[in-house]
Amino acid sequence: MALTCKVIGLDSKAHGTVDLDESVFGVQVRRDILSRVVFWQLAKRRAGTHKAKTLGEVQGTTKKPYKQKGTGQARQGSLRSPQFRGGGAVFGPVVRSHEHSLNKKIRKLGLKTALASKLKDGKLIVLESAEFKSGKTADLVKALRKLGWESTLVIDGPEVDVNFSRAAANIPHLDVLPQQGANVYDILRRDTLVLTKAGLQHLEARLK
After folding, report:
1. What is the pLDDT of residue 133?
2. CA–CA separation, 10 vs 146, rounded Å?
3. What separation in angstroms does the CA of 146 have from each of 12, 13, 142, 154?
4. Same domain for 118 and 73
5. Which of 24, 22, 29 lies closest to 2 in space, CA to CA?
6. Where does residue 2 rank: exposed (0-12), middle (13-18), buried (19+ CB within 10 A)?
7. Rounded to an integer, what distance in angstroms lies between the CA atom of residue 154 and that of residue 75?
8. Per-residue pLDDT averaged across 30-36, rounded?
9. What is the rounded distance in angstroms from the CA atom of residue 165 to the CA atom of residue 175?
10. What is the mean pLDDT of residues 79-88?
């Protein structure tokens, strides 16, 4: 059975239907693949600048706290040791990169799975074009209310219409990306996925 989707315009009018590539939008929805790709994406964004001082990095006196024997207490060599307040940390966090590798096939399958999940949930919309004559945010807000879009990601072709991008910049819960920026995390974090016909064409060519 061929996969189809209705096409609408920003004026809420119907523009027929479009056939979807089954090899892209008809894959099995696997939550484990989505989880792996999202974890890989977010790991790359982590700064990794957390740092705790070790015994050798803590500033303070190097004097022995008290004599070695005769006090009845455990022997101590430095007040900068971890067992003292203000001392260095043992196995504390260090500056590092959290980035890890992920097979290109898994990344590609993850993007296909994210697209297929939106289609399966009935939250995939194909837009005739994202061209917007007015660059005013207020005009776009009215159009979105009429369409019923709230938490939405719009993926256009290689280049996003300047007026549409400018009008969408100040609208909360609305993201706009060119097709080369399409990714699993941004698709899943928004309730509705909107693909322009140009964006759909390029994504299918990229993922076949």
Report:
1. 87
2. 9
3. 7, 11, 6, 16
4. no
5. 22
6. exposed
7. 66
8. 96
9. 9
10. 91
Q: Which of 75, 97, 119 is the last residue of a domain?
A: 97
Query: Six-digit token pair at 86?
Result: 């203000």
Number of domains in the chain: 2
Q: Which helix (H) or strand (E) holds 22?
A: helix 22-25
C-alpha count within 13 angstroms, C-beta hemisphere, residue 190: 25
Name the pTM for this structure: 0.84
The H-or-E segment that residue 184 falls in is: helix 184-189
- With 0-12 / 13-18 / 19 or more C-beta atoms within 10 angstroms meaning exposed / middle / buried, residue 119 is middle
Read off the pLDDT of each residue in 170-191 and give the average, rounded to a whole number.
96
Query: In this structure, what token pair is assigned to residue 54?
Result: 């070790």
The torsion of the CA quartet 50, 54, 57, 60, rounded to 10 degrees, works out to 120
Q: At 101, which amino acid appears?
A: S
Q: Which domain holds residue 177?
A: 3-46+99-207
d(CA 200, CA 182): 11
From 66, 97, 128, give the residue that closes a domain: 97
Distance in angstroms (rounded) separating the CA atoms of residues 87 and 174: 48
Kindly state whether residues 76 and 163 are assigned to the same domain: no
* CA distances (Å), origin 154, targets 6, 79, 167, 183: 16, 58, 13, 12
Largest CA distance in the chain: 93
